[in-house]
Amino acid sequence: MGYTIGEVASKMRVSAYTLRYYDKEGLLPFVDRNKSGNRDFKESDFEWLAVITCLKNSGMPVKKIKQFVDWSMEGDTTLQQRLEVFEKHKKAVIDKITELNKHMEKIDYKIWYYQKAIDAGSEAIHSQQPCILAED
Questions:
Q1: Do 67 and 4 sit in the same domain of this protein?
Q2: Which of 55, 74, 93 marks a domain boundary?
Q3: Which of 8, 39, 65, 91 lies in the 20 to 30 Å Cα band around 101?
Q4: Whole-number pLDDT of residue 123
């Protein structure tokens, strides 16, 4: 016996709407349908869904995810293309992490700034000190 879309949504912590959208966009060709035409997820579908969710949540566009899924359905002849998808995506994620770390430096500075101002009872203390972070 398989899982309903609601059960899968709960287990994967995504909405049923999201799963229906993924299906509509062609990301779930591996999901069977029961006699009534409802999606009938099986245990092995969870790994697929985990990969799709990972790619989506880390910024990969649905169109690129679909290409990956299509290549996966084709089999071993597309192993190189699938590897390249992950290598390129890894670089994009690393670039995003680097960008976010720069933003975090600014946030940390502002936290420090306001803590010092609160401790001093005024921002005036900072007017004599140069900013320790260069503006981007």
A1: yes
A2: 74
A3: 65
A4: 86
